[in-house]
Every structure is written in C-alpha cells, then in structure tokens.
Fold each of these.
Amino acid sequence: MSNQDYYVPHGTYWPIIGSIGVSTLFVGFANQMHGVEWGGSVMGLGMAIIVFMLFGWLGTVVNESVNGMYNKQVDKSFRWGMSWFIFSEVMFFAAFFGALFYARILSVPWLGGADNNMFSGATEALETSKYIWEGFQATWPLINTPGAVGQSGVEFSSGFKLVDTWGLPALNTGLLLTSGVTLTYAHHALRKGHRNALVFWMLATIALGAAFLGFQIAEYGHAYHDGLKLTSGIYGSTFYLLTGFHGFHVTIGVIMLTVILYRIQKGHFDSDNHFAFEGVAWYWHFVDVVWLGLFVFVYWI
Amino acid sequence: MSYTAAHDDHHGPEKGLLRWVKTTNHKDIGSLYMWFAFAMLLIGGAFAMGIRAELLQPGLQLMDPQFFNQLTTMHGLIMVFGAIMPAFVGLGNWLIPMMVGAPDMALPRMNNWSFWILPFAGGILLSTFFMEGGAPAFGWTFYAPLSTTFAPDSTDFFIFAVHLLGFSSIMGAINIIATVLNMRAPEMRLMDMPLFVWTWLITSFLLIGAMPVLAGAVTMMLTDRNFGTAFFDATGGGDPVMFQHIFWFFGHPEVYIMILPAFGVVSHIIPTFARKPLFGYSSMVYATASIAFLSYIVWAHHMFLTGMPVAGELYFMYATMLIAVPTGVKVFNWVATMWKGSMTFETPMLWALSFVFLFTIGGFSGLMLGIAPADIQYHDTYFVVAHFHYVLVTGALWSIIAATFYWLPKWCGNMYNEKLAKFHFWWAMISVNVLFFPQHFLGLAGMPRRIPDYSLQFADFNYISSIGAFSFGLSFILLTYIVIDCIRNGTPSEARPWDSAKGLEWTLPSPAPYHSFNTPPARAVILEESQHS
Amino acid sequence: MGYIVIAIIVVILFSLGSALIGMVKGGKEGSEKMFKSLRIRIGLSVFLFALLMFSGFMGWIEPNTTMLPTQ
C-alpha cells in the first residue's frame, strides 16, 4: 500500500447519474404495468443508464485501487460496507421466507378452520370457515386455493402439478453446490498464487452458474406448462418470488464473477491483496446458501 | 498516521451550483440533507394545515373525503421518510466525522448517492397527487387490501418511491457504520464515543435490519397488484394480516430509528447547560442497545385487534412493557444529570428540557396503548394520533430543532438571535400542546382517526386543536427567519460557544473547516472531551 | 430428520457468518479465517445435499411434492 492518507475522492457525477437511471427505470416500469406504450422503452433507457453508471463508477474505483490511492483503512471501509450490504440482502430474503413460513404454519391452517387460541383446546375445525369457503382443504403445498377468483379479479391457476423435486431442482442444487466447490478451489489457487488453476476454476464456476440459470428458466417453463404460475395462490407467490429473487442474485453473481475473472486476467490481484475477489466469493457462497434453504424448505420439508 | 486527504483536495469547495450535485464532502451533504428535510417538513406541514382546517368544525367544508385521506397519507409518509429521517441523517453526516475525529465519511461517493436519491423519491411520491385517481389514500401504513385491491394506479409509483427511499436509508446507514467503526481516531475507544455517535451507530443497525423488510413488503404489494400473486389475499390462500406483520416488523424498529438519535442529541445538550458530566454514560449506551434489540420483537403490539392468537397478544404486551425499563433509565439519567447542576436556559436547553417532559408524556401514552385489553378501547382513535405526535413532534422534531440551535454556531460560524429564538420556543411549545393535548381527550372519548367529519360532541376539542395547529404552523415561518438570519447576519461565534460543552467538534474552529480532522486527535484530547463523568 | 437438516443449516449459516467476520477483518489472518470457514460451509452443504438425496432415496423423508394436510 503506497500512501498513508485516507483517500477522499473529489466531486463525482456518478451518483446523480445513478439516481436518474433508477428513477427512469422505475417510472418506465410503473407505466409499462399500466399499459402505457412508451413504458417498456423508458425502462430500457433507465437500465442502460444504470449499466453506464455502474461501469463508470466501479471503473473509477478499480482505477483508483490499481493506482495505489487506497490505503489499508480505505480497504477496511469497503469490507465494512460490503458486509452490511450483505446483511441488508439477508433481511430482504428474510421477508420472503417469513411470508412462506407464516402462510404454511399459521394462515393456511387458519383458513382451513384451525383454532388460533391454544388455550381453548379446540380440536375440530371451526364452523365459521365452512361457511366462508366450503370444502376448502388446508394443505401444503396449497394446490387448490380457497376461492377461484381473487379480490382483484385474478383467476387463480389452481390444481397445478408440482415440480418434481428429483428432477431439475435436484440437478440445479447439484450444479450450484459444485460451483461453490470450484469457487473454493479458485480461492485456494489465488491464495497460493497458482494463476492458471485460478483462471480454470473461475471459468468453471461461471459456467456452472450460467448453467444453473439456464435450467432455472427451463424449470419455470415446465412449471408454467403444468399450471404452476404466479397466479397459483400463495404457493405460486412464494415459490416464484423466492426462486425469482434468488435467480436475480445468481445473475448478478455471475456478472460479478465475470468481472473478477477479467480483473484476474489484468493482474489486479495477488495472494495477499484481493478484497474484490473475497467480496464476490462471499456473495456467491451466500447466494448458494440461500438456494440450499430454498431447496430444503420449498422442495423438501 | 496522518489523515491528510489525498492529492488536490486541500482546497475548499467548488464554486457554483454543481458543487452541490458533485460533492463528496460530509458537511455539504449534511447541509443538503437538512435543507431537503426542512423543505419536506414545510410541505408535510402544509398538508397537516389542510387536515386541521377541515377538522376545525364538524361537517365537510373544504375537501372531499377522498382528498382528505390523500392528505393524511401523504402527510405521514412525507414527515416520516422525507423530514424526520433525512434530518437525522443530515445531523449524522455533519456531526459524526467531527465527533470521532475523522476527515470525512468512510464512503464519500456513496454518501452523495444516498442523498441524491431522495429528491427523486420525494418527487415521484409527490407527483402522485397529479395522477388519475389521486395520491395514495390508504394511510401511511398502507395496509392491504386498501393498498392492493382498492388503491389507485398511482400506488405503483408510491411503491417505487419507497424502494428508492429504502436504498437511500440503507446506503446512509452502511456509511455511518463504516465511519464509526473504521474512521474513528485510533486513540478513541468505543466507550469513549459521544452518545450521539453511539445512538446513530445503533440506529444504523436498525435501518439495515428493517428497511429491506419494508422493501420486501412493498415488493409483495407490487406483485399482488400487478402480477396476480396472492400474498395478501385470503381467496388465494394468503392473508391480509400477514401484510401487517411484515409492515410492522419494519415499522416498529422504524419508530426507534426516529427517536434513538434524538436521545443522543439530548444527551449532549443537557450536560452542557447543566454544567455537569452526563450521568451514567455507560448505562445510556446499554439502554440504547436494549431498546434497539427489543424493537425487533414487539411489532405486533400494533395489531392487537387483528384476532391474533391470545398467546401472541400476551407475549407482545409483556415484551412491549419491557421497553419502558431502558427508556426509563434514560429519562432518569437526564434528570440525574441536571440534579444540583448550575443550569442555564439557552434555547437548545429549552428544547431539550421540553423534549424530556413531552416525550415522556408520549412514552406513557405508549405504555397505555401497549396494554392489550386497554388497547381495545384506544385502538385507531385520536389517542393514538396524540401518542405518536408527542413522540415524533415533541420528541424527534424537538431534538432536531434543539440540535440545530446547539450546533448552528459550529456549522455556519454565527450565533443566532437568542431573544427571538427563545420567543419562538415558547410560541412553538405552547401551541404544540394546544394542538396535540386535546387529541388525547378526543381519543378517549372515542373519535376515530383518519376521518374528515365527526360527531358533534368532538367539536370543541377539535376546534382548540386546530387553533393550536395553525399557530404551530405559523411558528415555522419565524424559525426559518431565525436560521437564515443567523447564517447571513449573525454575530461571529467562538469555537466553543457554550462554555461547558464537551466534544471533539468544539475543538475545531467555527465554522468548521471543509475537512474536519486532518490529523486524528490525541488520547488526552479525546479523554478531555469525552462524556465520561 | 427435519430437525437434523435444520441443525445442519444452522451450522452452515454459522460458518458463513464466520467467513464474513474473517472478510471484514482482512489481512493475512482474516483471509485465512474466511477461507477456512468457507471450506467448512461448502463441505457441509455438499454433505447436506447428499444426505437429502440419500434419505429421499431410502424413503426416510418425502419430498414436498405430496400434498400433506397442515393440521
């Protein structure tokens, strides 16, 4: 580390560009959902601005880092920043896992007439539920929704066929876990300074991640074909939002791994100094663990 | 180790308006936050004036009920997300680097972004007024299905505005954590930190834990509204009450996000003007941490009337009662700090003292609401409105105004007009009580909240409350004048305008230099300026 | 069986968290801690996956594809 000073950057345009990009994306998205013609193109424009901002901003940071403008303390700020960003991600997923558990353990049984007062000692289904949705069976996965049409007029896609756990989900879990193993080998190679092995294992990790995404899309295709849709009531809602946001994070992870591979080729890292690699590696392990949680709680128990 | 900022950064700020767009300086960004918050306070305040004007007399006079509901909703959202939270982040930006002996915030570019998202989010939120169907009208808590099935199209814009506000808060919180933990003067230990820094550090953890859950909640709303999911629709196996659980899992930490930094501010001002060290420094730190922890496990006391399991009601009631213990520790510590002190009553002290009184009133009414069987009577009445305005207006806002007067000489280098400021304090203090105290009686008598018209027996107290509101609203014109007058024509202030004030920020000249500490302060200075008794 | 699976997940989360602490720490020591914790976490995850597959194969647990009444 070349200098002892804490680097305080001079003025920057990237944040305001980012704000314009994100706002454009959201305004476009909202209009798109309301059926406005220009919505989609404005969304695309916003996305392009965001990509431009990310390249510019992160490019500046990488340049500053390579030119030795950051000391150990700046490095530590990035480490703290990254770790608490990850914590916010954990809490975001926690909201959706919370919704899954709440529905499974509490609200679906209540819809089926279960008593919610443990002091009453009731064992039979409450009478009231029979009058509201006659014949509703509280099961998990909830394949038949209590009503056929939602409050806002959505026709629920009930009676769907569930995704076979032994098929794509198991394969995908295997792929993602293998990518975790290859990434660990890459990490090892980086720490030992074995460049060729590092590049090989990074390539393998990226390929496995991309394969996961491909199979995930295929799984969605099958599920939609079998009637499991976003409109399949609470099961479809939790299934798609959890796996969807996970897939979104895998996509980001694959992009970040690719950038790291590029930076490896450029010789930005050495065996002692590779925070960017560590950050992305941790992110990938985190995304991997989220999937494991999904696999266990959505597909198994 | 020297801290001199690298290369061409020794000179002062840039010239021109672009300075404010490009800035990475914690003081510039702090000022931007404060002015933005003030603008939002005036906008939100204008909505409140509209609400109180309609409620001046029974019957519908000025607006149709739908517009009234839009006003209450936007008043709440603007005040919470646009005024109080940004004001505290602004205070944190200005003060934390100075208080911990750092040159700037840890992540200056991100600091710029966390501010510059706000005007866009605020703009999107306010633009909903001009959309078809009007602004969201479901209350600031946006309960489903009001916000899903029965809401106008503009709700989707509201959802994205909340996403943006969430990004901003999370980035701000990450920055403050990194600054406090990594930029602190090497000689400053955690238990040497001033309480404002401690309370903000803990608040940041609350923000990072709570805001993503809010993002999750509005995302589920978005898909329920537009993509046919059924998170909050019982017909599809979901549950509208689940929305309330997710919302309040965010919402309860959120209310502590808005009060913990206030505790920090008051813990600075009272020792200064009582001329005694803060009583029980370490117990203050532990009490803050306990309140933060408890805030995560009490959320459903907002939901006693949703038909929760009885065991749940009991648990949430008892857990809520527990919060009174650490909060009591704090209030007693402030009182003990003043005990036998040689007190003087400059403007910041007046605001801080009335904070202790009035916030405690809000705290006690909160305890009343936290008792599940009693809450059946108070729930969704004006008693709740009175309660949270006592903690948010005479709590959070009071501390922000106190902090402004206390640190204004440090920020702009000038002293404000003490006479005018004291007059303004008494004006605001009396009128805010005329405004909110009668609302307790209205609530206990059974007047529901969020209604544009009411039965005749509520007329007198509503009349009084509205008069108080108009007076309170007018007082902000004087506040604006006092602050601008101070910045423009105030008499120059010394480095330490309050003779017994402690804190590293007072060792810097007034106005504070563009980069706070180029070399970190030594251990002796840190101990000299610490809040230890 | 469910409890065993959840217990393993908790240990995985623990080692993932420990890796995060190592990452924040930085330097030689932190980097070492991070790498070791990540190795534990991937090892356990692979083990958990194998365990799930095997006990599913043996019929000790049923995948979530059969509708079970919730009460």
Note: The radius of gyration of chain B is 23 Å.
Amino acid sequence: MSQFKIDLREKNDINVLDLKGYLDAHTAPELEKVLQNLMDVNKFNIIVNCKDLSYISSAGLGVFMAYIEDVRKHKGDIKLTNMSAKVYNVFDLLGFPLLYDITKDETEAIKNFSSLKS
Amino acid sequence: MKTLQLKIKSKTDKLYFVRDFVSDAARNFGFDEEAVSKIALAVDEACTNIIKHSYNYAPNKELDVRIITNEKVFEVVITHQGKLFDPSAIHAPNMQEYLSSYRRGGLGMHLMKLLMDKVDYKILPNQTCEVHLVKLITKKNEN
C-alpha cells in the first residue's frame, strides 16, 4: 500500500509538487529528496499543492523548515496551496502561517510569485 | 473500563497502523472527527519520538500501544524499553523565535501537549517507559 505520492510538474517557471496521502516520519524523506533535487538544479520557486494531502505530522512540517531559508536566500519561495481544514489546523496550531505563504489555490500562489518579481 | 491493545515493531512504516487503530477507537468512543485527528496525531508524534530517540531507529524493538477508556476518559499508553527520557529537559519552544530562526524538529512533544488534555511520562521499576496521553470527552468534542 502506497501511503504517499508526489507528482512534479512545471508551470510558468514554477515547480509544482502535488502531494497525495499521508506525510509522516516514514514518508517525509520522499518529500525531502524531491525538494533537495530541486535545490540541486537551482529551482527555487516552488508551489506545494496539498489538495490531496490527507495528513501531516511534525516530521512533514520539518521538511519545509529544512528548505525555506535556502529557498528564500535565492529569492525564491515555497508556497503552500489547497490545504484541507485538517491539514491547515496542524500548520496553524504551531503558528506556521506566520512564516509560510499559504494560499487558497494555485492561481493565487502563482500571482504572489509574479508580484515578488515586479 | 475497556482496554484495547496493539503491538508494533519500532519502524516508521507502522505509524499508519497505529493512527488507524487509535482513530477507530476514538471514533467508537464518541469523539468528533476533529478530536479523532488530534488524538491520532498526538499518538503518531509520541511513537515517532520513541522510534527516533529511544530506539534510535533500531527496527526490531517493540512498542505496545494500549487504549484504556473509562466513562469520559480516553487514555493511550505507549510502552517501550528504549532509552530513558527526561521530559522535564524539554521546554515548550517560543514559536515566533523558532520560526524566525528557521529551526527544524523538536516539535513533537509540544504538539502532543497542545493536542491532548494531559501528557505524562512514567518510568516503571523494570526500566520500562510509559507515555500517557489523555483526552477527555466533552460536549464540545463529542460526535
């Protein structure tokens, strides 16, 4: 049984990660690997689409914390979109919306990237 | 009083089963979905901490997860024989400072305390460690 899946696509020079399933201490290394691969090829504009993300634990939150500083140093960002109330509550409980740009949908996240450039 | 029990190996791929086991029991006890999610996450964090810090990822050790329910009390007791742990050494992080300094990790226990009504650590005379996670059912979180 596959608990977690990541699909990667590119849109307007932004890399979009579609997450599906359960992000916990077991599956977090998979996300870490994908983000590390993007860093290695200097891709710093990232959207994480959480539409089909059913669950996140602190191990999953830790992966975003591991890369956000580097990404922003390179004038990029990790923007999170389409979160269910259940997943958003975990981010919110720990105050993560203070640090991360969490948008309602992908269009809004893309727009926020454009306003960064201008 | 009613007790349910699940034994798992100290591997992170077992977290999924623990969450399912605890979620089903919490749902049957009468918690709403929001409370069920909170309990499952707290138990996941406790098991992850044990696998990572007490067993240092050794995959052949055991965790014993017991659910004890009594009237309005839903208690999850996780027992292990790993490294002893001093919870008093862990202080709640200042989240503003944590986020602004881009720290990573160390949020598991903080989350458990935010999600549950009571979190307690016990060391038994035979050097077995227990993590107790308690959630009370109230009108607010009742289904």
Note: Chain B has a mean pLDDT of 93.
